[in-house]
Amino acid sequence: MFNLNKMTFFSVWLLLSHTLYGASGDTYTHLQVCKAALSSVMGVDPRAIDTEQEKDGIVSLHYRIAGENDRYEYKCRVEGKRVIWGSAKGRWRTKKGDALITFSVSNGNVTIRERFNDEPRSQGTKTTFPLSQL
Fold it and tell me: What are the start-end ranges of the E strands in the chain?
């Protein structure tokens, strides 16, 4: 029988709890989903976005635009199939006028869908990223 102390058990649980599975059995992490969502929303190449490990379910992300000195910082969390984000020191984008961002994972890709409440169901944007590039 294994004799795991609390810290070891917690570390193993934490590692396993942040690896999720898509409909086709693809494994993905909240870090990948958040990176894809921010890339889609901001129109930034996902390779330019750096992520930091989750803390309390919140992913920290940041990027710089070539030729600019500003560093753009954001936060993100995943709730079910919904992605919620905000500027690092700002509010979460959860109000009625904010876009609803959802994701799905299939065949090695994550697809981000962004739709505003005033758009008919058939409208909105959809962006797909290979998980291997996130």
Answer: 19-21, 27-29, 50-55, 58-64, 71-79, 82-87, 100-106, 109-115, 125-130
Q: What are phi and psi of 132, to 5 degrees?
A: -65, -15
What count of Cα atoms within 13 Å lies in the side-chain half-sphere of residue 44? Answer: 24
Return d(Cα 33, Cα 12) in angstroms, integer.
21
Segment 72-112, tens digit of pLDDT: 999 999 999 999 999 999 999 999 889 999 999 999 999 99
Hey, what are 76's tokens? Answer: 């993100």
Residue 125's closest CA among 104, 99, 107? 99
Q: Nearest to residue 109, comparing CAs of 81, 83, 127, 129?
A: 129
Task: State the pTM of this model.
Answer: 0.79
Separation between Cα atoms, residue 116 and residue 1, nearest integer Å = 53
Q: What share of the chain is helix, strand, coil (3-state, %, to 5)?
A: 25, 40, 35
Tokens describing residue 120: 């008919």
